[in-house]
Fold:
Amino acid sequence: MQEILRHALAAIAYRFQKATYKADDQFGTLDLGQGVRTPAELVNHMNNVLQFTIAAIKAIDRQTIHQEGFVQEVVIFKQKLQELDQCIQQNELKLATAKKVLQGPIADVLTHVGQIAMMRRLHQQPIEAESFFTATIETGKFDYF
Structure:
């Protein structure tokens, strides 16, 4: 189960980097109105989801990651993905816990990556089409572009 979770994190890293490639702080402030989070706010939320997951697995106190600019949030996200990957690799998770990590934080973060990809299109910067089925995604790899 650890290997599947770790591969899911690598797939998230790949899709996230594809969705944020060459995006700048201006994109990060894209305001779609009606209470929709900006891209920077979404990535900050994702960073906190990962941070809280790490804290839960390690059984340590949770710390909130405060909002930064979009580019810095992207850097933090990559760091948190790597940190969660190492945490999963180093801690033998029970099946029930692994299922919760998959259905909760991993599914949540993947949903938000899709939102960011959609926002790029709305920002007139659509991401290039690709078959993710054939993408070269490697467990433990977090830098693709």
The mean pLDDT is 95. The CA atoms of residues 98 and 120 lie 32 Å apart. The helical segments are 2-20, 25-28, 39-58, 70-90, 95-122.
